[in-house]
Amino acid sequence: KRNQLNLFFIDSKEGVITTTGKLDYENQSVYNITIIASDLGSPSMSATAILMLTVTDVPDEIELSDKPVFISRYFELEIEENVHAPVELITLNLTEYYETFKMRYFILNENDTEVKRNFVMDPRNGTLYLVRSPDREMRDVYEIIVRAERQKISREL
């Protein structure tokens, strides 16, 4: 059944609630949805529940796409030459909206053997590790390119 705003749909057999349109935080940030379940008995029995749905604000400039946005485009780190590896260097964070999604992180420097040899990215949480101590005489600057991909999620409530 549809509600009066036509923003939600309840599958009357399964009880799954889905959105049928965009929820706009600026127009309404909280929805109180009254759910009534009833049987076909005689007399009919019913129960009522209220679902309070809070909408999270997403900045208008963020497109809801498969291209997550890091909190910064560039990060600069300094590493001591003789540091004992392995060392956790940094956890790359995404903008607030994407914190709710399951993500996969990848180092894209496929052709850079020094990056592949010295650095590892945890694909589940975006943490970059130094796994081998760098040799400053061989190379003193590393540019590491990282990509995050959003995993698909169900739109069911």
TrEMBL record:
Q: Where in the cell is it found?
A: Membrane
Main location class: membrane
An example molecular function term from Gene Ontology annotations: calcium ion binding
UniProt keyword annotations, A-Z:
Calcium, Cell adhesion, Membrane, Repeat, Transmembrane, Transmembrane helix
Q: Which GO terms describe its cellular component?
A: cell-cell junction; membrane
Among the GO biological process terms of this entry, one is: homophilic cell adhesion via plasma membrane adhesion molecules
Query: Per its UniProt entry, which superkingdom is the organism in?
Result: Eukaryota
Question: Domain Cadherin spans what residues?
Answer: 3-70, 71-148
PROSITE patterns annotated for this entry? Answer: CADHERIN_2
For this protein, the parts annotated as crossing the membrane are none
Keyword Calcium listed: yes
Protein name (Swiss-Prot/TrEMBL): Cadherin-89D
* Species whose genome carries this gene: Nossa palaearctica
